[in-house]
Design goal:
Length: about 130
Protein backbone atom coordinates (compact mmCIF):
# COMPACT_ATOMS: atom_id res chain seq x y z
CA UNK A 1 0.00 0.00 0.00
CA UNK A 2 1.37 3.39 -0.97
CA UNK A 3 0.20 6.43 0.93
CA UNK A 4 1.04 10.04 1.56
CA UNK A 5 -0.17 9.77 5.16
CA UNK A 6 1.98 8.84 8.17
CA UNK A 7 1.62 5.14 9.16
CA UNK A 8 -0.55 5.98 12.19
CA UNK A 9 -3.14 7.61 9.92
CA UNK A 10 -3.22 4.91 7.22
CA UNK A 11 -6.09 2.46 6.84
CA UNK A 12 -6.21 -0.81 4.92
CA UNK A 13 -9.23 0.35 2.89
CA UNK A 14 -7.58 3.62 1.95
CA UNK A 15 -7.04 4.00 -1.82
CA UNK A 16 -3.55 4.45 -3.17
CA UNK A 17 -2.51 7.88 -4.44
CA UNK A 18 -3.20 8.18 -8.15
CA UNK A 19 -2.11 10.91 -10.52
CA UNK A 20 -4.85 11.92 -12.96
CA UNK A 21 -4.44 13.71 -16.28
CA UNK A 22 -0.66 13.55 -16.28
CA UNK A 23 0.98 14.69 -19.51
CA UNK A 24 4.64 14.63 -20.38
CA UNK A 25 7.09 14.71 -23.24
CA UNK A 26 10.62 13.46 -23.61
CA UNK A 27 13.48 14.10 -25.99
CA UNK A 28 16.73 12.20 -26.17
CA UNK A 29 19.03 15.09 -26.90
CA UNK A 30 20.01 18.53 -25.73
CA UNK A 31 18.01 21.15 -23.86
CA UNK A 32 17.85 23.10 -27.12
CA UNK A 33 16.07 20.12 -28.71
CA UNK A 34 13.74 19.76 -25.73
CA UNK A 35 12.41 23.35 -25.74
CA UNK A 36 10.42 23.03 -29.00
CA UNK A 37 8.84 19.81 -27.69
CA UNK A 38 7.75 21.15 -24.30
CA UNK A 39 6.15 24.39 -25.48
CA UNK A 40 3.28 22.77 -27.49
CA UNK A 41 2.51 20.49 -24.54
CA UNK A 42 2.42 23.48 -22.20
CA UNK A 43 0.09 25.40 -24.54
CA UNK A 44 -2.15 22.34 -24.90
CA UNK A 45 -2.47 22.18 -21.09
CA UNK A 46 -3.00 25.98 -20.75
CA UNK A 47 0.14 26.38 -18.65
CA UNK A 48 0.98 29.85 -20.03
CA UNK A 49 -2.43 31.07 -18.80
CA UNK A 50 -2.41 29.40 -15.39
CA UNK A 51 -2.44 31.64 -12.36
CA UNK A 52 0.25 29.68 -10.50
CA UNK A 53 2.79 27.35 -12.08
CA UNK A 54 5.60 25.41 -10.41
CA UNK A 55 8.32 23.98 -12.60
CA UNK A 56 10.24 21.06 -11.09
CA UNK A 57 13.60 20.55 -12.75
CA UNK A 58 17.23 19.75 -12.21
CA UNK A 59 18.81 23.16 -12.51
CA UNK A 60 22.20 21.72 -13.45
CA UNK A 61 20.78 20.21 -16.64
CA UNK A 62 19.81 23.61 -18.03
CA UNK A 63 16.11 23.02 -17.59
CA UNK A 64 15.88 25.82 -15.03
CA UNK A 65 16.87 28.35 -17.67
CA UNK A 66 14.39 26.81 -20.08
CA UNK A 67 11.61 27.13 -17.50
CA UNK A 68 12.54 30.75 -16.83
CA UNK A 69 12.48 31.50 -20.57
CA UNK A 70 9.21 29.72 -21.34
CA UNK A 71 7.37 30.39 -18.06
CA UNK A 72 8.83 33.58 -16.54
CA UNK A 73 6.11 33.87 -13.86
CA UNK A 74 6.56 30.27 -12.66
CA UNK A 75 8.03 29.19 -9.33
CA UNK A 76 11.17 27.12 -9.93
CA UNK A 77 11.69 24.05 -7.75
CA UNK A 78 14.33 21.35 -7.43
CA UNK A 79 12.83 18.09 -6.18
CA UNK A 80 14.37 15.47 -3.89
CA UNK A 81 15.00 13.10 -6.79
CA UNK A 82 17.12 15.64 -8.66
CA UNK A 83 18.97 16.92 -5.59
CA UNK A 84 20.07 13.54 -4.18
CA UNK A 85 22.68 12.75 -6.88
CA UNK A 86 24.50 15.89 -5.80
CA UNK A 87 24.68 14.44 -2.29
CA UNK A 88 26.07 11.17 -3.61
CA UNK A 89 28.75 13.05 -5.56
CA UNK A 90 29.64 15.14 -2.52
CA UNK A 91 29.73 12.51 0.19
CA UNK A 92 29.23 8.93 -1.05
CA UNK A 93 29.66 7.44 2.44
CA UNK A 94 27.37 9.97 4.12
CA UNK A 95 24.57 10.05 1.56
CA UNK A 96 21.86 8.47 3.75
CA UNK A 97 22.01 10.97 6.66
CA UNK A 98 22.21 13.86 4.21
CA UNK A 99 19.16 12.52 2.32
CA UNK A 100 17.31 12.53 5.65
CA UNK A 101 18.14 16.22 6.04
CA UNK A 102 16.99 16.87 2.49
CA UNK A 103 13.61 15.20 3.04
CA UNK A 104 13.20 17.27 6.24
CA UNK A 105 13.74 20.46 4.20
CA UNK A 106 16.98 21.22 6.05
CA UNK A 107 19.22 22.32 3.18
CA UNK A 108 21.08 24.66 5.55
CA UNK A 109 22.26 21.64 7.58
CA UNK A 110 23.47 19.94 4.40
CA UNK A 111 25.39 23.08 3.47
CA UNK A 112 26.97 23.25 6.94
CA UNK A 113 27.94 19.56 6.85
CA UNK A 114 29.54 19.92 3.43
CA UNK A 115 31.51 22.98 4.54
CA UNK A 116 32.67 21.17 7.70
CA UNK A 117 33.90 18.30 5.53
CA UNK A 118 35.88 20.70 3.27
CA UNK A 119 33.44 20.09 0.42
CA UNK A 120 32.53 23.73 -0.22
CA UNK A 121 32.47 23.19 -3.99
CA UNK A 122 29.65 20.67 -3.48
CA UNK A 123 27.86 22.96 -1.03
CA UNK A 124 27.60 25.58 -3.79
CA UNK A 125 24.79 23.64 -5.52
CA UNK A 126 22.69 23.60 -2.35
CA UNK A 127 23.51 27.24 -1.56
CA UNK A 128 22.35 28.31 -5.02
CA UNK A 129 19.12 26.29 -4.86
CA UNK A 130 18.28 26.13 -1.14
CA UNK A 131 15.11 28.17 -1.52
CA UNK A 132 13.93 26.00 -4.43
CA UNK A 133 14.47 22.53 -2.97
CA UNK A 134 11.14 20.85 -2.26
Amino acid sequence: MSSLLPPAQQREDQPEAVCHAMHYTAVFGTIEQFAPAVWPLAVDQNVPYAGRVTVVADESAGTGNLAADLFPASTPSVDWYHATPHLADAAPRRTHPLKDLLIKDEAWNIIAALHQADLAHHAAYFEAHRSRIV
